[in-house]
Amino acid sequence: MTEHLPALQVIIPLLLAPVVFLFNHARLAWILSVLVSWVGLLISLSLLFAVNDGEVIRYEFGGWEAPYGIAYKVDRLNALVLLIVSAMAAVIFPFSWQAIQKEIPPSLHVIFYTALLLCLSGLLGMAITGDAFNLFVFIEISSLSTYTLISLGKDRRALTAAFQYLIMGTIGGTFILIGVGLLYILTGTLNMADLALRIGEYEAQESRTLQAAFAFLVVGIGLKLAMFPLHLWLPGAYANAPSVVSAFLAATATKVAVYALLRFLFTVFGADYTYDGMHIDYLFIPLALISILFASIVAIFQRGLKRMLAYSSVAQIGYMLLGIGLANESGLTAATLHLFNHALMKGALFLVVAMIFFRTGGTSMRYITGLGKEMPWTMAAFVVAGLSLIGVPLTVGFISKWYLILASIERGWWPITIVVLIGSLIAVVYIWRVVEAAYFKPRPENMPPVKEAPAGMLILTWILVAANIYFGVNASFTAGIAGAVAAELLGGGV
Length: 494
Description:
The chain is an all-alpha fold. Helix content is 78%, strand content 2%. It has a domain at 279-494.
């Protein structure tokens, strides 16, 4: 059975989704979804420990050897992303049952869990497949289910946000498909490892077709990961989706898209072509710096907590792209490490938002005012996760930014170090706005008193909060994996 773990990682949630829909029982749908998420976490941990010494696991469907059949490949980078997705699901899925009672009509609960399982399956499939077209298929599975999840929000603006994401996502998917198609026309293969071997001669010839494929893939995946200025779908999607959906997407979807970008840039095209041939650093570094400053400043002026965190996510994506653009081992370590760290901090923050909505019925500043005394454990979770977002020492956010600063110093680019520090200072401003409202202002007289969030929701949220501290104090495991991944990416491995 253990040899089939790569396939089971994707197949279990994919097969359970229609089963959940056919049973049409909301409570059973939740129970099965939780069980699937926990099984997925166990599988991803098993795969990570199996490849942590540098081994690569290959799984070929139907006995068809690559490149003739579809193959899954697990290395350190795949395994880390699989762990991120499955770990977030293992926390958020159990949390979801109480959260959706206030945000999604009971008649739609089964559809919610069906779409959630499909989204999980699509994200896991993107992270594990070694086939370029198969990656596109899983992108579409996750995207279509995401459109459904966003549209389930009670606010009518959720439909507008879902439609906007549908348009932007369709454009992004089309660009990715065109890029993959151009690579297939050029090489006659879709297997990523085989593509890496065959396109070398075309890189030397400066093939226009290869350059076009590169451009289509970068723009298409850039739309999916909300790279500035292709991020316009993200604030509306996060702000108007049900809170638990926002938490799951913020913690997983953009991380998997960044992984897909890394996989194409370094595994398929190679670091030499990416930096020396296409000069991707000339694109990523300016866009990343603008994203960090612009999105952080815009976050300050948001009245709603979810929209504020959405713009914060755009800025955090900028940090990841900056790490890629710096083109050294420390920068790629920072980008890879921030995939994991940002999932922890943003997952915790959005679960706090879900608990606030559960008790107050809203997430704008007027609902948060005075909550420090009435929901002390909830707001304490926000403070700790917010400190991690800022990058305070002893949190995971500090570790990511430390490696980014180290990377910029190694390149001798001090202005980039200053921008990273300014981005952290701006984060202090918008996090402080929430802290000030919750702890230093009285509860409005027209607002009814509220109780602390349910114990089950608090425990699950504090698991993520504790992880923000633990992996900030003891970063040797995650930083070790990220460093090994960065060395392999730049060395042409993985």
